[in-house]
Amino acid sequence: MSAIQKIGVIGAGQMGNGIAHVAAASGFDVILLDVSDEALKKGLGAIEKNLARQVQKGKLSEEDKASTLSRIKTTTNYSDFGDSDLVIEAATEDEAIKRKIFNLLCPVLKPEAYIASNTSSISITRLGASTDRPGKFMGMHFMNPVPVMQLVELIRGIATDEETFSLVREMVLKLGKKPVSAEDFPAFIVNRILLPMINEAVYTLYEGVGSVESIDTALKLGANHPMGPLELADFIGLDTCLAIMHVLHDGLADTKYRPCPLLVKYVEAGWLGRKTGRGFYDYTGEKPVPTR
Ligand SMILES: CC(=O)CC(=O)SCCNC(=O)CCNC(=O)[C@H](O)C(C)(C)COP(=O)(O)OP(=O)(O)OC[C@H]1O[C@@H](n2cnc3c(N)ncnc32)[C@H](O)[C@@H]1OP(=O)(O)O
Ligand SMILES: NC(=O)C1=CN([C@@H]2O[C@H](COP(=O)(O)OP(=O)(O)OC[C@H]3O[C@@H](n4cnc5c(N)ncnc54)[C@H](OP(=O)(O)O)[C@@H]3O)[C@@H](O)[C@H]2O)C=CC1
């Protein structure tokens, strides 16, 4: 079993930059890829900001911040993954995009390299089968925000080798995270439970049972959730929430997973939550303002 030292990360969005951050902070060399220099600049900016916050809180020294940043390189070119030991895919939650990425990635990888997907919901068996190495492929599902959340769900596809699972599990422990194993069913464990709750919160808004503020306050103060479900949906990204609901609805063929029409409309409007400045809250001012 070869050791993992060089990590590739695909997608510099909120999850990809978080994964690059924690991997580099744990001493791994990281190469981060996205489609444009602009996306890479934004991702690197988020890493710098989150590291600076850790320095400000006295949890990290300036030297450790600098050495973490020095371990992260960026690229738009797949050939830079030639010496990667493990590549973690964290691009948009869309099966067609992920398949396209694996088609570009596999030919440049060394034969012994592993691939993991940070997908929130899509079949690991199906994604693995679209690569040239289903035995060396598995699900590695980090939680948002990655530098803060302890859990990583580990998902074997039907073809995943035991060696792959052990190696990735060991890597999760090296990142200081807690692994939990989930079977390859739509949306695994966390999102099988969390997303129907978020979808139900959107129905609660849609049917006029409560306002954005009352729904979020109710769950924060009534169930001790750190964020209300609509605030959390905006934080995850409404496009990602809808994609997960579609996977649950299609994959489990049960009407209880029907995406709320209001969630569909918000995504169609481009109101994707924090990342676009508007979702159930408007983020363009100093403080988030509920929109309904
Ligand atoms: C969709 C999927 O596929 C799976 C998922 O990820 S589902 C989403 C799972 N995540 C959640 O449920 C998050 C729920 N929310 C929370 O736990 C909290 O609101 C929170 C941790 C995000 C912020 O907590 P808070 O008390 O409001 O903020 P604050 O005190 O400022 O920050 C707490 C810590 O988080 C850090 N932090 C906050 N936001 C952050 C961000 N976006 N990125 C990095 N770090 C962040 C802060 O630096 C702070 O770190 P320390 O404890 O080391 O000092
Ligand atoms: N949001 C969350 O809370 C969580 C999300 N996940 C999963 O992580 C993955 C990423 O989600 P998240 O970071 O939130 O999404 P974001 O929208 O923040 O980021 C996605 C990134 O992928 C990039 N991208 C799109 N297409 C390609 C491509 N063909 N090649 C390379 N990069 C590409 C996007 O670039 P551009 O902007 O230029 O399109 C963007 O930078 C998804 O699979 C999601 O389900 C897992 C756990 C939690």
Automatic annotation (TrEMBL):
GO molecular function terms attached to this record: 3-hydroxybutyryl-CoA dehydrogenase activity; NAD+ binding
The protein's enzyme class: oxidoreductase
Site (Important for catalytic activity): H141
Biological processes annotated in GO: fatty acid metabolic process
Residues that bind NAD(+): G11, A12, G13, Q14, M15, G16, D34, E93, K98, S120, N144, K275
Protein origin, superkingdom: Bacteria
Segments forming domain 3-hydroxyacyl-CoA dehydrogenase NAD binding: 6-184
E.C. code: 1.1.1.157
Residue ranges of every copy of the 3-hydroxyacyl-CoA dehydrogenase C-terminal domain listed in the record: 188-283
SUPFAM superfamilies: 6-phosphogluconate dehydrogenase C-terminal domain-like, NAD(P)-binding Rossmann-fold domains
Record key words, sorted: NAD, Oxidoreductase
Protein family: Belongs to the 3-hydroxyacyl-CoA dehydrogenase family.
This protein's name: 3-hydroxybutyryl-CoA dehydrogenase
Source organism of the structure: Magnetospirillum gryphiswaldense
